[in-house]
Amino acid sequence: MSYRVLKLAGGICAVLWLFAAPAGTGFSTAFAQNTDAKPADQQAAAPKEGAKDNGKDSAKDGTKEPQKIDEFAEAQRILNGPAGNPECVWLGRRVVSLLWRDDLDTAFRHLDLYDRFGCPSGHIQVTFRCLVLHANTIDPKAADSLNGRVHACWINPALPPAPPPAASAQSPTTTR
Question: In b/e form, how buried is each residue of 31-65, taking b as 16+ CB within 10 angstroms?
Answer without folding.
Answer: eeeeeeeeeeeeeeeeeeeeeeeeeeeeeeeeeee
